[in-house]
Structures are given as C-alpha cells and as structure tokens.
Amino acid sequence: MKFITSLLSIFLIIGSSHCSKDTSIVQVSGNHLLLNGKDYFIKGICYHPVQKGQTKRSFEGLDRDLSLMIEANINTVRVYSPIEDIAVLDRFHHSGIKLIIGFGYNQEGQFDIRSGSFIEYIKKFKDHPAILMWELGNEYNYHPEWFEGDIQNWYGALSEAAELIHLTDVNHPVSTAHGEIPDSLALANIKHIDIWGLNIYRWDMPETVVSEWQMLSKLPFYYSEVGSDSYMKIAKNGFKQGVNEDAQAEANTKIIDAILNNYSKVAGLTLFSFVDGWWKAGHPEQQDVGGWAPNSSGVPYDGTPNEEFWGMVDINRNKKKTFDVVKRKFNLGIDSHEIKKSK
Q1: 60 vs 64: CA distance, rounded Å
Q2: Which of 175, 164, 163 is nearest to 131 (CA)?
Q3: Are 171 and 129 in contact (CB under 8 A)?
Q4: SS3 call for 232
Q5: What is the dihedral of CA 268, 273, 274, 279, to 10 degrees?
Q6: What is the pLDDT of residues 84-141, one digit of tens each?
Q7: Which residues on adjacent β-strands are paired with residue 271?
Q8: Structural domain that includes position 45
Q9: Which residues, 6 or more positions from 82, have their beta carbon under 8 angstroms from its beta carbon?
Q10: 278 domain residue, yes or no
Q11: For the ranges 40-44, 109-113, 290-294, which has the lowest average pLDDT?
Q12: Domain-located, residue 10
C-alpha cells in the first residue's frame, strides 16, 4: 500500500483525455455502460485457456476460441490477469469482442497491485480499442489471510489502486470482482469503484441479488461470475450422478433468463466459463472430479463446484449442450433499452 500511495503523488498530473481514434470510451450511465455513447450490455464469458497437460494460460488456440465466441454471440471476455501480447489484444478487437482486464494483488511484480506495476500496463494499453474496463482482484474478500489477517488492508490497497487508475485513464471504468454481496465494511471502505462485479452462486436464482443491491448502493453492478458445471456429484433434482450436460444446460438457461429479465437493473454478465480447466483439481493430463471454491454451496444442482467441468466447451473445444443455451440467449436485440428475448 505504501508503494501505491507514493505512486499517487507521481501520477497526479498524468491523467489525460488524449486517445487514439480507435480508443473505446466507456462510461457508466445509470445501471449500464455506454460504449462510445451507445448502450452496452455485457454478454460475456470468463476466459482462462489452459491447454491439456499444462497449468499456465496459453492463447495458442485463440482463433478457434474466438470463432466459437462469435458464434455464441459473446461480446465481452473477462480475463483474470493482463494480456501482454498486443497481437492477442488486436485479435480480440478485430473479432468485435471487448475485454475486462483483471489484475491480481501479488503476482511477483508482474503487473500486480502490490508492487504498483499494474499501472505500467494501463499506461501502455489504455488506448487499445479492445479494452472495456479494468478490474481489481477476484473474490479477495474470502481471503483475509492473504492480507495479514485483516481484509481492510485489501480494501485500502484496492481503493488506492482504483484512484490511481482514474488519474491515468479517464476513458475506462474501474471494477472489482467481489464474492457475493459486499458487507457494510466493504461498502464503507472500498472507494473509487465505478461498477461492481459480483460473483454469484445462488443455485439457479441469481435475480435475488438485484433488490438486495439496490438497497445497498446506487452504483451499477454486473454478474462477474455466474453459472454451473457439467458434473453432478450426487443425483438430485431429477439429474443423474456423473457427467451431466443436461443439468448444466438447464441451470444456465434459468440463470441467464433471470438476469435478462432484469436487464434494466444490471449491466450484464460474464458466465463462468468458456472452457473446461483440467489444471484445477488434479492431474492436468486428465479431467478430475473434485476441487474446491469458497462459498460454493450454491452451485446447481448438487451444491458442489467440480472445478474441471465448468466450460461451455470441453478441453477439445467440443460444444456442450450449454453452448447452444448461451448462443440462443445472447442472441439479443437491444433497442431503446428493450430486449427481444430469444425463444
């Protein structure tokens, strides 16, 4: 935090409205975002592509993935760490897909918040037309142990980082991805955030968040994580135990419908996730059952997050049944804040 505080004084005069002719200017307007003055509803996907047998993110299959995203009517991709290759950013832009760029707290100085190096990334890429917004942290409220046992240390660092971004880039909003609805401590201490991301796992009923949020804050929010996996640990709700694409497809149908039915009150969603992650729960050469995630008892329909089964496509990019759900539901026509729902 001390390093970030010192950076604030250095960058007080850096903020500039200069941008290239292709820069996306993104603003908050009511409960939505405006992209270059036009209403923008996030129809997104969380994306962390790790190849079979590997544990690190790789974009070697990006063209194939972009083709699938375009087919599924996805307009936004949320990534958990910065993309340093400008050629990758360019490919997203030329595909018509915007990026929510996430920054971690401690990434050993690799564009992270703790070292302050995240701002170097923003200075370098703030005018790139693929950028939709910046996002700080992901569910860190579940991990006070990462911040000397006091989550307020994170809230302070987050607020300072958000302020520094505003001084550096006036054309893109700043978000944070919070696990569930923030409590009074978080709302009181997290400042300079333009739009909240909420990771919500409440069975297939994410709409319960809307009225709760409206009572807490006047800021907009989007569902930064929402969805279901394709494995049933137990038989439940009429779904058989084991690999079960039907359960995932039904859950995501109800989840997406519930969010779209509240279109005017939310800024959109990024479904979790694009591709199965074989690196998460066991041996990266095979797909393992299991894994763990905090506060995940609300995962439909077995209350268990089988971490390697969340993709709308499998590791070989074969479409699961939920792919067609996303494609159909994201095939929206948005005109004067009205949705023409897919049948």
Answers
A1: 9
A2: 175
A3: no
A4: strand
A5: 160
A6: 999 999 999 999 999 999 999 999 889 999 999 999 999 999 999 999 999 999 999 9
A7: 45, 226
A8: 32-335
A9: 101, 102, 103, 111, 118, 121, 125
A10: yes
A11: 290-294
A12: no
The H or E element containing residue 167 is: helix 151-168
On whether the CB atoms of residues 121 and 144 are closer than 8 A, the answer is no
The torsion angles phi and psi of 16, rounded to 5 degrees, stand at -145, 145
- Tell me how many domains the chain contains: 1
Q: Any idea what DSSP says for residue 280?
A: S
Go through the chain and tell me how many residues it has: 343
CA–CA separation, 134 vs 98, rounded Å? 11
Other beta carbons less than 10 A from residue 1's beta carbon: 17
- DSSP at 127: T
Residue 104 lies in a domain: yes
Q: Write out the two tokens for 278.
A: 């074989």
| Helix, strand, coil share (%) of the chain residues, nearest 5 | 30, 20, 50
- Which phi-psi region, left, alpha or beta, contains residue 242 (left: φ > 0; alpha: ψ -120 to 50)? left
* Predicted model pTM: 0.92
DSSP state of 142: G
Task: Output the domain CATH number for residue 172.
Answer: 3.20.20.80
Q: Taking a C-beta distance cutoff of 8 angstroms, is the pair 157, 113 a contact? A: yes
